[in-house]
Amino acid sequence: YYTSAQLRSVYASGINRVLQNNRPRREQPYNTMQLMQWNFFLENGLLRFDPATRKLSIHYDRYHDVVGRLLEKVLDVQYAGDKAVADRFIEQYANWDENLHGAVATNIREQQRYRFRLFKYAQLSE
């Protein structure tokens, strides 16, 4: 279905979508979820951060295993139906390290050409 280059691109997109360019607030559930995924990927060796270069690398050979383990863990938390278990899971993975996450976020912001978009709608006579 995919060539190996296309598959690698799909995997990289899956990683890119969890990277944050700002520290998420707890009341931002999707951003917090993405931070948790990012931390799980780091903890389980799918991602590696090099403090010297301040860059992330992806270990594509670990992708299926690590993503599968994250899914299993999330399903276990949901199945347990225990708020304390869910809170511990969130506390474990919703941490922001300025030296790691902040460095990557700065790199992302520096690469962005546009940060905001202004939409005009013809139907609203804008």
Architecture overview:
- This protein is mainly α and 126 residues long.
- The chain has helices spanning 4-16, 29-43, 63-80, 83-93, 98-111, and strands at 47-50, 55-58.
- The mean pLDDT is 94.
**Relative helix content:** 55-70%
Large-scale geometry: globular
Number of helices: 5
End-to-end span in angstroms?
Answer: 44 Å
- Record field, number of beta strands: 2
Measured by DSSP, the beta-strand proportion falls in 5-15%
Provide a brief overview of the structure.
With 126 residues, the protein is mainly alpha-helical.
Blueprint (SSEs and pairs):
Layout: H1 4-16, H2 29-43, E1 47-50, E2 55-58, H3 63-80, H4 83-93, H5 98-111
Antiparallel strand pairs: 1-2
Key traits:
globular, 6% strand, two-stranded antiparallel ribbon, mainly alpha, 5 helices, 126 residues
